[in-house]
Amino acid sequence: MARLTVHTLDTVPSEAKARMEAVQKANGFIPNLIGVLSNSPQALAFYQEVGKMNGSNSLTAEEVEVVQITAAAHNGCDFCVAGHTKIGTLRLKMPNDVLEALRNRTNIDSNEKYQALAQFTMQLIDKRGAVSDEELAAFKAAGYNDQNVLDTIMGVALATLCNYANNVGKTDINPELIDYAPKR
């Protein structure tokens, strides 16, 4: 059961109502994460605005999802694993073996570049950004550059907000996402 209020359109603070209505219109439902984040209209705005920037950074759409699924799995956020797996599956048509490796934090044997990105994402989280020279060099050797480094950090920052909010709140996974949730 959720430990933080999961707002609906009927209970949402007025400062967050327009944002929540836009989510309903775009998705056909309101993910419980949005209901939780709307407890702080600023947190909801941060999520949506940084999310837009994250979606148009130097990484491909698939690489953005590599960062998001990796961070969610690494941070133990089943809600975000489910949501980003759905995006990777339906919108981006990412290969199932890649998605399963990300969800399980195992090697992505079919794509060395995605593997390097997932590994670097976990190193950023584990070391709070203080990666070694060798770890940074390995990431760049996989074909990434300085802009990609910072855009990966931005993705981790966005994931941290969502993962931690869901972990603190024990946010229930919506029925629309449950088929994409990790099987435990």
What is Rg? 16 Å
- Biggest beta sheet summary: none
* General form: globular
Tally of alpha and pi helices: 9
Distance, first to last CA: 17 Å
Poorly predicted runs are none
What would your notes on this structure say?
The protein has 184 residues and is an all-alpha fold. The chain has a domain of 109 residues: Up-down Bundle (AhpD-like), CATH 1.20.1290.10. Helices cover 65% and strands 0% of the residues. It has nine helices and no strands. The longest helix has 24 residues. It is globular. The mean pLDDT is 97. This is Alkylhydroperoxidase. GO terms for molecular function: peroxiredoxin activity. It comes from Moraxella caviae.
Index terms:
single chain, 184 residues, mainly alpha, AhpD-like, 9 helices, 65% helix, 0% strand, globular
Topology record:
Blueprint (H helix, E strand, L loop, with lengths): L13 H14 L4 H6 L3 H14 L6 H14 L3 H14 L4 H9 L7 H15 L6 H9 L4 H24 L15
InterPro entries: AhpD-like, AhpD_core, CMD-like
Pfam family, one: CMD
Keywords: Oxidoreductase, Peroxidase
In short:
This protein has 184 residues and is mainly α. It is built from 9 helices and no strands.
